[in-house]
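Researcher: Next entry in the queue.
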Amino acid sequence: ISLFGQTLMIAELGAINRINLFNTIIAAFLNNVANPKIACISDRRTFFSFLLKVFLFLSAYIILFLVGVYFFGDLFLWVVGEQYRNVQGTLFLMAVSGGLTIYSGFLWGVNYSRGWINNSWLIIAVTLVLQAVFLLCFKLSDLNSFIIFSVVSIFASIITNLFFLAYGIKKHSW
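Model: Structure for this entry, 174 residues:
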């Protein structure tokens, strides 16, 4: 952002990114409870059942989080400062980015805990390709475009981790 943007954009990005601090509680739950349990499951049915429960829990949390940001974003912006009142729409985009990051982290944690990440370089390669395509198609001129660029990068991680998950499930002998 410092190469393509202005210092005001950096300050705004830092301020609105604080909304994602709410997600640290969920990330701690995933890292300390869900992923260790997933690593220990040896039954296929139990694995899929637990995976579905965690996915539904994450989905419900993210939907509630996004609805909260959408309807109460002004309150959050009031807390971070009056000078950030003009970034309400951008705040919602940042919350979407944070929600997708939770999904990405969960998928990575599942794959890591099961030992299904054998070619982790693929995550980097897919991310770089999607970022290059984005840079060719869009101009990074405002804060929204930077956050959308971030979302594209998160999608690369989600796609790659879904591939690792499907491959790991297929190869795993239950």
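Model: Residues 104 and 158 are 5 Å apart (CA to CA).
Researcher: Noted, moving on.
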